## 1
Amino acid sequence: MSDYLVRAANTPALRSIIKSIGLPTPQTLARAEGGYAEKPLKGKTVLFSAAGYATAGKTVEKLLADTGAEVINGDGSALADDGRVHGLVLDVTGLSGPDDLKALYNFFHSTVRKLQTCGRIVVLTDVPESTASVAAATAARAVEGFVRSIGKEIGKKGSTANLIYVEKGAEDRIAGPLRFFLSAHSAYVDGQAARVTNAVQQSGSPALSNALKGKVALVTGGARGIGAATAGRLAAEGAHVVCLDIPADEETLNATVASIGGTALPLDITDPEAGRKIADFLKEKFGGVDVVVHNAGVTRDKTLANMKEQFWDMVLNINLASILRINEVLLGEKIVNKGGRVVCLSSIGGIAGNMGQTNYGATKAGLIGYVKAESENLADEGICINAVAPGFIETRMTAEIPFVIREAGRRLCSLSQGGQPIDVAELITFLSSPGAVGVTGQTIRVCGQNLVGA
Ligand code: NAD
């Protein structure tokens, strides 16, 4: 499914008509083609500055050079007046109080106009709770407000702004999120704050391309939509993917699996024995599993007063209870290998709540709480567990929304358009990769900085 306004806005003859009637003219987003590259920013220029007090500056500068980018230190005054850059990166780790925030103004005031279409802003600062003083914690948290706001100023041109909070001592884990946020793999991830911590014990340097070679992944609801896109993306990184979907959809499931060289597992996740059946299947065929993506989900929208009990029960069971039941077996019996990754599909509806979605909103919020609580139990196994919260994504699920509400859902975001299943698949793939070792217990949105729940 595609967004008609994105297509029209990029047709010169229609663009001026769209503008003249006051409709947004969304920028076609530059999306990555294929898997991760060793040098994803080759041929691109990044302006980088570390504030005088920054503690991660040297590490970040080296990591930027490793991306293949041409890295220019400073405010870009050396660039020609019409010179444009792909990325603006500022390191404000180590700030001690509100006065230090001036570094944000000083750097971006002079450089933000130099950002090219579909450019990237990334800011790094300290995890507020790990700072030494109240003033430092305040300043670190202030950076998030800055990033979310500047994201809204650059979104029209398809550009994004994201923040990386860095825990002291976790600097060597910045590479994964930094590369992801700066690359075309994060086209629809905007206005987010990822925390990089030392919570999960795992050694070894992150593989950068073919990141999941030799790994086995399970994707529930993998026949179509976001699940199928995720399966394809994980396979492109070298994983063997087991796609699970309801038996009634076996034909679509088989077609998806055939297209990626994976394995089909027709099963309803609400089957009380689903955990046992999945565990036995994975153990017998592959000896275990490295990546589990809980993607299967449904909506049955009605205001609470009009909602049939059966639809309350159904949504709660599919979207939440089944996931916990299945994980109890997969994690409890250590079917998920050490160093594994678990990703649950939440929703911005779970963050903000949505009219007519008391059932759905409860399940998607529940998953945010679940990954946070479960992350602490899994840290010693080297397993990261996170949630992904999509905004408006063009799938069968959103095609069913009435037109006016659908339009609002699409446009009310900084990028003025709905996302594609591949955009969610990209974030899931990043969180499934070795490079995401510093990220656990978190919920990251992939919503083009949608106003809902922002
Ligand atoms: P979709 O309807 O296109 O696909 C969902 C898949 O899950 C289907 O193939 C379906 O058969 C499968 N499924 C449903 N119940 C199942 C069960 N009991 N057992 C096994 N498989 C089952 O949906 P989508 O839009 O691709 O959404 C995928 C996930 O992303 C869902 O969890 C959804 O809540 C979440 N999400 C989607 C959006 C969006 O805009 N599309 C936004 C926020 C969150």
## 2
Amino acid sequence: MLIIPTSSGQKLSDDLGRELNAKVADKTVKRFPDGELYVRINEEISGHDVAVVGNTSMDADIIEMLLTLNAVREASPDELTVVFPYFGYSRQHRVYNPGEAISSKVFTQSLASSADRMYVVDIHDEETLGYSPVPFENISIIKSIAKHFNSYGIDYVVSPDDGGSVRAEEISRVLGVKTFYLNKVRVDSRTVRMEVPDVELKGKKVLLVDDIISTGGTIMKSASIMREKGATNVYISAVHGIFTNNSAARIKDAADEVAVTDTIQSEYSTISIAEEVAERLRGGL
Ligand code: R5P
């Protein structure tokens, strides 16, 4: 198999190359004087199984991904698999107000038009998978997060909302500890109230896990509730650390440690997903 990274997928591609004993392709990515992007894969592609790896979070990532997929398709691979460590634009997966675009649908369909099979890591809502005309599967990162916190003496794995409760439950099962979730109640468009179940947390060590940390508002509020309830140690984790609005700097004081996966590179992306993704690719290719 030949692994072809886009710029945002370089680290995962290098890790997957080691895990799968596969070559990571050399490529040329540059901008024309007018700002348009140029992509060329400097490898023999015809007759090979190819996995293209990269995110779609920033607009520029999407352009690079579309050009990379077309470059590969034009060169006639045997099978073209795409791995999206972070699939951006997936939070709008349906029309909430008349006149809106379904961003997750338009990008799924555009990207799938060049692919034979696609994988995504912890997509925000699995409804998006159904928009793809080719097989599109979610890879939920559980073992890698559990492994990172295995020696921390965690008492509870907590999800900040019910949407993430299955993830928290699965991680708690691997760690052999208890779990619960907070109930996020939207009071109005700007205010959210968090309801906490009646659990004794005095002297306990809590691992908070979410799918995404964006502004950090949800996870920081949850961490402060855990402290108010007497938890001695609060650890924060998530699959995707976007850290907008300077939240990377603010989140430091909210927890004993912040550790997210490396789907998006940041100072906190200390948990590698390569093993779990490689496992899936071995089964799928
Ligand atoms: C919400 O449904 C998600 O699971 C996350 O809780 C949310 O995206 C986090 O966003 P923020 O960091 O901006 O509070």
